[in-house]
Amino acid sequence: MLPFPSRSLVVSCQATASSPLRDPDPMARMARAAEEGGAVAIRANGPADVAAIARAVAIPIIGINKTGDPRGVYITPTADAAGEVVAAGARLVAVDGTTRPRPDGATLAEQIARIHDEYGVPVMADVDHHEAGLAAREAGADIVATTLSGYTGPGPVPEGPDLELVASLVAALDCPVIAEGRYWTPEQAREAVEAGAYAVVVGTAITNPGALTGRFRRALS
Ligand SMILES: CC(=O)N[C@H](C=O)[C@@H](O)[C@H](O)[C@H](O)COP(=O)(O)O
């Protein structure tokens, strides 16, 4: 059902508003480099980046559309936001799959149903907890991803990935589980597929040279 094989790598090509790489062309070049390196799909944010990347690569794009307040539901918070990235060339859409209230008052099930009916693409639910993963699947998600683990609580964001959440979702769900969030090393990515993840999405560790530079700098101070 997914347009890429299991045990494979998806590369997230995103840049924040303040990044020198914040432009569709650098993101498209990143995506081409990732494709050359063997990525099976690209995760990308916003219609402009998705359109540029779709022109640059042959592999499918998981589109997201970050809108609104990053402290709340902001990864593709509405069906309309999903439609914009599908129109730009995304073959799948990832949406916030947490149980937090959505900005337009829709339920996750309503959002997913509209995406299926109106745009005809599979939906990946980015969740933060085990229960949210179960609820997202119940709500119709085709894929569940661990993307938001560590980002919705009051505490600091952990350093490493949430492999326990990968394993618990794999054990409980009848759909592909994608590991995403703070995968820094190939070993961690392999652990995720060994825990049953269908694929691993890596962003910062491959496509964010500013963050990588900071990591090395901090290690030296
Ligand atoms: C929490 C949130 O907003 N995550 C975003 C989701 O698209 C991106 O900022 C991440 O870079 C992406 O999930 C990949 O993760 P990492 O960059 O850790 O490999």
UniProtKB/TrEMBL annotation:
The keyword Isomerase applies. GO terms for biological process: carbohydrate metabolic process; N-acetylmannosamine catabolic process; N-acetylneuraminate catabolic process. InterPro entries: Aldolase_TIM, NanE, RibuloseP-bd_barrel. Its EC number is 5.1.3.9. One of its GO terms (cellular component) is cytosol. Pathway: Amino-sugar metabolism; N-acetylneuraminate degradation; D-fructose 6-phosphate from N-acetylneuraminate: step 3/5. Keywords: Carbohydrate metabolism, Isomerase. Gene3D superfamilies: Aldolase class I. It catalyses: an N-acyl-D-glucosamine 6-phosphate = an N-acyl-D-mannosamine 6-phosphate. GO terms for molecular function: N-acylglucosamine-6-phosphate 2-epimerase activity. The keyword Isomerase applies. Converts N-acetylmannosamine-6-phosphate (ManNAc-6-P) to N-acetylglucosamine-6-phosphate (GlcNAc-6-P). Belongs to the NanE family. This is Putative N-acetylmannosamine-6-phosphate 2-epimerase. It comes from Sphaerisporangium krabiense.
